[in-house]
Design goal:
Chain A is α/β, with parallel strands linked by helices and about 260 residues long. Chain A has two domains: about 5-125, no CATH class; about 135-250, no CATH class. In chain A, about 45% of the residues lie in helices and about 15% in strands. Chain A is built from nine helices and eight strands. In chain A, helix 5 (about 110-130) crosses helix 6 (about 155-165). Chain B has about 425 residues and is α/β, with parallel strands linked by helices. Chain B has two domains: about 5-300, Alpha-Beta Barrel (TIM Barrel), CATH 3.20.20.70; about 320-425, no CATH class. In chain B, about 40% of the residues lie in helices and about 10% in strands. Chain B has helices at about 5-15, 90-100, 120-135, 150-160, 175-180, 185-210, 235-250, 275-290, 295-300, 315-320, 335, 345-355, 360-370, 370-375, 395-400, 410-415; strands at about 30, 40, 50, 55, 60, 105-110, 140-145, 165, 220-225, 250-255, 325-330, 380. In chain B, helix 7 (about 235-250) links the parallel strand 9 (about 220-225) and strand 10 (about 250-255). Chain B is globular and about 70 Å long. Classes of the chains: A alpha/beta (about 260), B alpha/beta (about 425). At the A-B interface, helix 5, strand 4, helix 8 and helix 9 of A face helix 1, strand 3, strand 4, helix 2 and helix 12 of B.
Chain lengths: ~260, ~425
């Protein structure tokens, strides 16, 4: 019989689940988030309570089996939020604990190859956000951006923006997941905001943003148009690099 | 700031700068210190892409498009009847900083038409970079053009503020240069390049001995060649390229398909299409030289002065050297794996890692991401099924072509169509 392990959706919760799997020697399992759980007649269910102590023990023990880099990859895979990714992460960890060797580079194993492919997707999305974040300067001199990434990559972007924009206050807000990062010139903190829908409305730009903000947006749009070489037009390549779902947050593509 | 006036200048001077293809913003080592603005340490970022599919990473503009030279291939040549404009130093600084703060760009790519003389122009370029670094505490990426003929002292100073310096040699052969830009001399291009190279060498050796050496052009030098403007062969282009990589430790050579901008009869006429496929093949060759351990003489030589347009240069090489194949992917060394058509650098490394655990079969290779439609004729693996037929190069080529789908198929088929009379040209 399969056991459905229900966890709270946090990474700590997932690691606690791994602890549980070993503690009770669960053989057949499927890990789901609380919100995704649908009851059925055939499977046993177990609710896992997040426990930082147990999570830490799993995380530390992993260091004896795989590299720090591979551990980070597991975290990245977790951020993908793809359906079923929890099971793959648990299998990966089981493989790692069971093996005498470092298994992380065994790309002939389907689970390991799959994780490395998901990590590649997450990395790409993280890199896209480094590129596609467009700040607008608010009246109180905070550089403000809204995003809607495919995966939950914002935690991965934090260092990049903190190092780069060390002398300006900024907020990057994930509208889909309803949380954001705020840098106050010293540290980055996670925040949640009530965002006025009107903020992404072109007409209201001057209510929220600084006087020169619109001018610079126009300069940028103009530059973008003039740096294009018309005789080399290649729309499919353009869309491949800048997929349409990102356009609404890109200053140069909004209009 | 007078935004309308700046907007007008930006239109003119971005238009004039866009034919420079370099947009790289990677490979520098400039970290953000003392809570300044910007960081360019490591990976480059393409913040957007224009409708022609090229990346927008840097604010790429000219300081001015006034120029005393009259090079036939250049849009800002003296005799061309176009609007002229010039930025003030402060205007470029403001644009760069404000674009950077909004995360539009990685930094500035500043080039210029040559006004008065080489040194005067170079001085102004340096003034922009200096102001950005010293007054604005800007650590973003700066790419400056080395103006041909600029003095050694100025090139020394430029490298202290810029991450990358570049001189475009533009025309691959000296005879082409004489024809299209008679006032220019190859030596003028080489002089600043030589100086920068020596400075970088010196910086690296001093860095080993001393703790504090001012950082010098950390992202190195690059250059650009126009392809298809002066009737040169692929071999001439790539040999020039290999020479510059070797003699000046260049980070990159860019190839830019000539975009017709003039009715000058020394050049392809307006309306001629841009040779994008040829450009692509040249870049592939460039990559083979830099990352796949090929020597330029293996790919292009007297018997093969031009690259094949319908297949990539690695496949072309492999077909000429069938005696070296097939190889066993479970045994071959990295050097040979990299030479297999359809097998990229990433797959090669994955194979080397994965085969430590078990012998790889076709399915493993497929999942790893090897393009088996090409590779299968050149490798064997842990499987009893493999290509056993002895085929000639021509047979293999047509077999591979019939089983693959090139994005350039349209261009290629028109070039190969022998039965279409108007296309039958004697070159």
């Amino acid at each position: 019989m399969k056991t459905i392990l229900i966890y709270d959706g946090s990474f700590e919760g997932l690691l606690s689940t791994v602890f549980y799997i070993y503690e009770y020697q669960i053989d057949q399992f499927s890990v789901v988030k609380t919100e995704d759980y649908v009851a059925n007649f055939f499977d046993k269910k177990e609710e896992i309570i997040s426990n930082s102590n147990k999570a830490n023990r799993v995380w530390k023990a992993l260091s004896t089996k795989i590299s720090a880099n591979a551990k980070r990859k597991l975290y990245k895979a977790f951020l993908s939020e793809l359906p079923g990714i929890e099971n793959k992460i648990c299998h990966f960890i089981q493989l790692a604990f069971a093996s005498k060797y470092k298994i992380e580079k065994d790309f002939s194993n389907p689970t390991i190859l799959e994780i490395s492919k998901v990590v590649k997707m997450v990395d790409r999305e993280k890199h896209r956000m480094d590129a596609f974040v467009r700040f607008r300067q608010t009246k109180d001199n905070i550089y403000f951006a809204t995003i809607e990434p495919d995966f939950n990559v914002l935690p991965l972007n934090s260092d990049h923006f903190r190092e780069r924009y060390a002398d300006q206050k900024w907020i990057i807000y994930d509208v889909k997941r309803k949380y954001g990062l705020f840098y106050n010139l010293n540290t980055v903190t996670t925040i949640t905001l009530e965002i006025d829908e009107a903020i992404n409305n072109k007409q209201n730009e001057l209510t929220f943003f600084s006087d020169t903000e619109v001018e610079f947006q126009q300069l940028w749009g103009n530059y973008f148009e003039h740096t294009n070489i018309k005789s080399r037009k290649n729309t499919s390549l353009h869309i491949k690099h800048v997929p349409k779902r990102y356009w609404k947050y890109l200053t140069e593509k909004k209009n | 700031m007078n935004f309308d006036r700046i907007n007008e200048k930006l239109s003119i001077l971005a238009d004039a700068a866009k034919y420079d293809v370099s947009c790289s913003s990677s490979g520098s080592k400039r970290q953000n210190k003392n809570k300044g603005l910007g960081n360019s340490d490591g990976m480059g970022i393409c913040h957007s892409y224009t409708e022609d599919g090229r990346c927008v990473s840097l604010l790429k503009i000219l300081l001015t498009n006034h120029c005393i030279f009259d090079c036939a291939y250049c849009v800002t040549r003296k005799s061309n009847d176009i609007k002229r404009a010039a930025f003030k130093v402060q205007e470029i600084v403001d644009l760069t900083i404000n674009f950077y703060r909004r995360n539009y760009i990685e930094g500035l790519f500043l080039s210029s038409g040559i006004f008065k003389n080489a040194d005067y122009t170079m001085e102004r370029l340096i003034a922009v970079a200096k102001k950005l670094r010293e007054e604005e505490n800007f650590n973003g990426y700066i790419h400056l053009k080395s103006i041909p003929g600029a003095s050694d002292e100025l090139m020394r100073e430029a490298g202290l503020y810029a991450d990358r310096l570049s001189v475009n040699i533009e025309i691959p052969t000296e005879k082409g240069l004489k024809l299209l830009a008679p006032e220019k001399d190859r030596k003028d291009f080489i002089k600043p390049m030589e100086k920068v190279k020596n400075e970088i060498v010196q910086y690296k050796s001093e860095k080993k001995l001393l703790k504090k050496v001012p950082i010098y052009a950390p992202a190195g030098q690059s250059t650009q060649m126009i392809v298809g403007a002066s009737g040169e062969t692929d071999a001439e282009i790539m040999y020039t390229s290999a020479y510059f990589y070797k003699s000046f430790n260049l980070k990159r050579v860019y190839y830019s398909g000539y975009i017709p901008i003039s009715y000058d009869d020394r050049l392809p006429s307006i309306g001629t299409s841009v040779p994008v496929l040829r450009e692509n093949r040249l870049y592939q060759t460039d990559w083979l030289l830099r990352f796949y351990g090929f020597d330029v003489r293996e790919l292009l030589n007297k018997e093969h002065p031009n690259l094949e347009s319908d297949i990539d240069p690695k496949l072309s090489w492999a077909l000429r050297n069938l005696n070296q194949f097939p190889i066993d992917v479970n045994k071959a060394d990295l050097r040979m794996l990299l030479r297999v058509p359809g097998l990229g650098a990433k797959s090669a490394h994955k194979i080397i890692n994965a085969r430590k655990f078990r012998k790889l079969n076709w399915e493993n290779l497929n999942l790893i991401g090897v393009a088996l439609n090409r590779a299968k004729y050149f490798i064997t693996c842990d499987s009893r099924v493999f290509e056993t037929k002895d085929r000639t190069a021509a047979q293999l080529k047509s077999l591979i072509l019939s089983n693959s789908n090139s994005k350039f198929r349209k261009d290629i088929s028109s070039q190969l169509n022998l039965f279409d009379a108007p296309n039958l040209k004697t070159a």
